[in-house]
Amino acid sequence: MKKNLQSGSRRAQQGIALLIAIFVLLLISVVAIALLVSSGTETALGANYRSSSTVYYAALAGLEEARGRMLSKNPNYFGPAIVPPGTSLATALPLGQAVYVVNANALITETVAPWDSGNLYFDTEYQSEFGIPASSASWQSVNSVWNNHSTPGPMYKWVRINAVTEQSLYIDVNQDGVYDSSTLLFYDPAHLNSSGNPMPSLIVSSSPPSTAVQALEITALAYLPNGSKKILQYLVAPATINLVLPAALTLDGHSDAFSSPDHSYFRISGNSDGGDSACSSMSYPVPAIGVPDQTPDVNYVISGNPGPGSTGIPVSPNETGNFTGNGPTPNVVQVTLPSNLQTVQSLNQIVQTILQNADAVIAGPATEANLPSAMSYSNPMTVAIQGDPTQVHQGDFHLGTTLSGFGLLLVTGNFTYDTGSNWNGIVLVVGQGIVNANENGGGGTFSGGMLIAQTRDTSGNLLTNLGPASFTNVATPNVGSGIYYNCSWIQAAQAPLTYKILSFHEIPQ
Amino acid sequence: MRHAQHKRSQQGFSLIEMLIAAVIFILLCTTAFGLLSVAQQRYQTESQVLNSFQEARFGLEEIVRDVNGSGFPPQSMFSFTPTVPPANLYAVTPVAWSPNYPNNPCQIGTAGGGTCTNSPGDFDLIIERDVDPWRHDGVEWTRYQLANNILSRAQSYKVVGGDPATTTGAFFVPYVQNVMNNTTPAQIAQFHAIYPNMFPGGNPVPIFSYTCYTPYGPQPCISAGSYNSPQYVTDVDITLIVMAPTVDAQSHQVRLVELHGRGHSLNQIQ
């Protein structure tokens, strides 16, 4: 009986448990479904926003990859055969050629062929710009740094680099009422408007001036697996400082100071020291030393040289053209400086451009040990030594003998070089404008060109007019080999600093 | 014995048992529905906040992209000498201004400073660019303005000789609702009390703050000296503070979302 009672009671409780269990399950299900619905909505909203942002910035990443790789100092440089530097008509990318940077995704094994009308990523934009399908263009392709990479990068599919005309941009640049489809567009930073005022702009010209550089178009397509797609476009032009050095050593100022050693090893030569094959059109010799004034500077320089009667700066048969008069007087010539080297303002502008775009800006005082280690014969670099101009000697640089420099060196303070040191390229000493030689080792050579200009007083304030530039080499017994004009090194030191963005816009899909 | 057992099994539950079961069941239900109701309230509030957040995010993204494309096409795309006043063929500036457009650029200020009395300002921005270059219909003005807690957007053609603020003034459409950057001092004080990190100093928060080009590197326009001009604007920082339309169902406090973005004009004017 007792047993039965217990058994009956248990059976009754079992019913209650079932009921409770069913209700609790029901409640939990309702809550779970509510949660699922809400998180589902969030996911959809988030995904939509994400794809529209991703596709935009992916296209931008493509533009930036191409813009970066057009620079010779980029480790993934395209090379001049693929995208020429475009710093003159001779090095311009011709019309009708399209360079594609393709970026296929390794995870889905796809083919990216914007020149193939059957490809998913066919470049339809080309036809709207040039009136012919991309499949008829003369194209070449380069892989993106992300192409078939094990970890896919930004999801742009291709980037196109090409020359432009008024017709392709659909902009009447010169407002002559005609959309020219055959003349290349250049960008001229020195362009003047009809009133003679500077107005840097695009120009339509079949014989562009030497200051003009080619305007190139970069177009990027980004495409997401969900079908989102975006085309962005840059118009870029190489930014160069465009230095035309008139002499091996240019003392850019008034009442310049010059003193050279009394030794036959030391030369300042308007003839190349050899290896100048890149400048076949260059007519040597150029003046050894250039100054802007006949009086008093030519005489100052001549008197700073030990002059006739001593060994002085030597005459050698193949350098006769560099020297005036009889005997060992260096060829000091009054030169007409390009407009960007004439005033404190224009020189300061060059300094600012270099500081903004240099490969390395080194806080002075510094020595050759502070130079970037990547600098080499095949990789000339742009290096600026900068300090607070109001603090004396903060922009100073001492070039020692432990390594040779290649490229463009800007020193804003005093420049001291050891007589055994070498530099290939351009040396600009603009700021304090003082160069001194320090006797340490022999045989060091500056191959390229040197320009000295004083634009600031000793307190660091910009001068109204250029002050006296100063070059002193009284080192002895080792004097160094001096300065040789070298057109190839001057060009190599002036590779485009960057590709400046002239314009940017989205192309709607 | 068997009879007694059979009878008992048909007896069902006693009243006491039923009552206890019912009480337990009601207690469980109350708890469960209480939880469900809390979850429901949370869900409603969060989806409101999410909606505001989403709306603000789209708004912000659009402004950022408009600023990125501002100033297209720049004057440097044309080699001819511009006429005065400039035609609407190209953008003379990334950011248009009022008054005295286009001949005398004003100075950008904040909190009522500067000489750009209409635009650009903390709560007003007019972007100049050709939205649809392929149409050859000239440059457009796109304007964003905050008024009565509604951020409105207007777009119109650039009118040669016209004032950007007056021209765009006729085309406003509401864009983002409940933007609280410049609400009443009482509300700002209330928000500041709940969210001490928002509205620093209890002051309105500018939607737009501007960075100008200078030869010495970019500077906030208000401290850029002679380069403080809408023509030299390179970057626009955008801060949107958006309130959810209803208060939090549990705490009964307002919910705010603060979003930041930065647009950078890639079209150089210099």
Question: What does this protein look like?
Answer:
The complex is a heterodimer of chains A (509) and B (270). With 509 residues, chain A is of the alpha/beta class. Chain A has 2 domains: 97-240 and 496-507, no CATH class; 249-492, no CATH class. In chain A, 22% of the residues lie in helices and 28% in strands. Chain A is built from 6 helices and 26 strands. In chain A, strands 9, 11, 12, 13, 14, 16, 18, 20, 22, 23 and 25 form an 11-stranded mixed sheet that branches. In chain A, a hairpin with a 5-residue loop joins strand 7 and strand 8. Chain A is elongated. Chain A starts with a helix and ends with a strand. In chain A, 44% of the residues are buried. Chain B has 270 residues and is an alpha+beta fold. Chain B has a domain at 40-72 and 98-123 and 176-264. Chain B has 4 helices and 9 strands. Chain B has helices at 2-9, 15-68, 164-169, 185-194, and strands spanning 95-96, 124-129, 140-147, 150-157, 173-176, 208-212, 219-220, 233-243, 256-264. In chain B, the strands form 2 sheets. Chain B has a 5-stranded antiparallel sheet with strand order 1-2-3-4-5. In chain B, a hairpin with a 2-residue loop joins strand 3 (140-147) and strand 4. Chain B is elongated and about 105 Å long. Classes of the chains: A alpha/beta (509), B alpha+beta (270). At the A-B interface, helix 1, strand 5 and strand 26 of A face helix 1 and helix 2 of B.
Describe the secondary-structure layout.
The complex is a heterodimer of chains A (509) and B (270).
Chain A: H1 2-69, E1 97-102, H2 124-130, E2 138-143, E3 156-163, H3 166-169, E4 185-188, E5 201-204, E6 213-214, E7 216-223, E8 229-239, E9 249-252, E10 257-259, E11 267-269, E12 289-291, H4 294-304, E13 332-334, H5 344-357, E14 360-363, E15 366-367, E16 381-386, E17 397-399, E18 405-411, E19 414-418, E20 423-431, E21 434-438, E22 445-456, E23 462-467, E24 470-472, E25 482-485, H6 487-492, E26 498-507
Parallel strand pairs in A: 1-2, 9-12, 9-22, 10-24, 11-25, 12-13, 14-16, 15-17, 16-18, 17-19, 18-20, 19-21, 20-22, 21-24, 22-25
Antiparallel strand pairs in A: 1-3, 3-7, 4-5, 4-6, 7-8, 8-26, 22-23
Chain B: H1 2-9, H2 15-68, E1 95-96, E2 124-129, E3 140-147, E4 150-157, H3 164-169, E5 173-176, H4 185-194, E6 208-212, E7 219-220, E8 233-243, E9 256-264
Antiparallel strand pairs in B: 1-2, 2-3, 3-4, 4-5, 6-7, 6-8, 8-9
